[in-house]
Amino acid sequence: MAVGRMVERVPGVRWLVRAGSILACIGLWQLASSLHVNLGIVTFRNVPPPTEVVQSAIVLLKSPKLLAHVSSSLWRVFAGYGAAVVIGISLGFAIGRSRTASDLLLPPLELLRPIPAVAWIPLSILIFPSSELSMIYITFIGALFPIILNTVHGVANIDRRLVASARSLGGTPAAILREIVLPGAAPSIVIGLAIGMGTSWFCLVTAEMISGQFGIGYYTWEAYTLQNYADIIVGMLVIGLLGMGSSWLLTTLGHHLMPWRHPTVAR
């Protein structure tokens, strides 16, 4: 208990613990790969050790293809994600605030929501004239539904007494939306935006594996087809870093936009 309290109170100690956990995982990975551990269900015979992955990462960092892969993936993610933010928040507010909009829009959205992004790829190739647009569409679909549902949840859970009180005091619909509904729904919307960003990256990588020529997903799939196993892990790590960085930016922006709200769980 005393050690746990010290870790919580001293930020430097917390970062040391986090770094130590990562190093421990890397150490176990190095040991399992070097010894070619075979547990029957799981085997590390063909898994490259971290030392080989670092060498492949250095080669990629020196290659001019890195910029082309990363820039292509970033453009596709943020283009599709940006469209999903605008449309998803608009639909979420409409569904959450209007019973008629909910009856008209929610049933088809709920019908389409369980369809995985992979299933949309053949149709997107048929609909859009270029593979670039089809990949952007896949990232759009991946982010759209989390954003809509979290926006609906945030708007629908606004305390009706606050809205009624504002109306009795002469508040206009625009003022109620700006001063009560939007601040009250903001935490749920930010969560939806963060989830949507993660699903955008997941969907993009899947789309790039099938129809891309550049991008981190294409790089990872190409490494698999060429049996460059260390490059596969490098691609996975780059995807993880880009996704983590994007989600961190959204969460940080959300904290700045909601100064009245303090996180209840220490990060």
TrEMBL record:
Any one cellular-component term (Gene Ontology): plasma membrane
CDD domains: TM_PBP2 (cd06261)
Pfam families: BPD_transp_1
Residues of the ABC transmembrane type-1 domain: 70-250
Its membrane topology: Multi-pass membrane protein
Chief location: membrane
Record keywords, A-Z: Cell membrane, Membrane, Transmembrane, Transmembrane helix, Transport
Domain of life: Bacteria
Regions crossing the membrane: 12-32, 74-95, 111-129, 135-159, 180-202, 232-251
Gene3D superfamilies reported for this sequence: MetI-like
Alphabetical GO biological process terms: alkanesulfonate transmembrane transport
InterPro entries, alphabetized: MetI-like, MetI-like_sf
Cellular localization per UniProt: Cell membrane
UniProt entry tagged with the keyword Membrane: yes
Stated family: Belongs to the binding-protein-dependent transport system permease family.
Function according to Swiss-Prot or TrEMBL: Probably part of an ABC transporter complex. Probably responsible for the translocation of the substrate across the membrane.
UniProt-recorded name of the protein: ABC transporter permease
Record organism: Bradyrhizobium jicamae
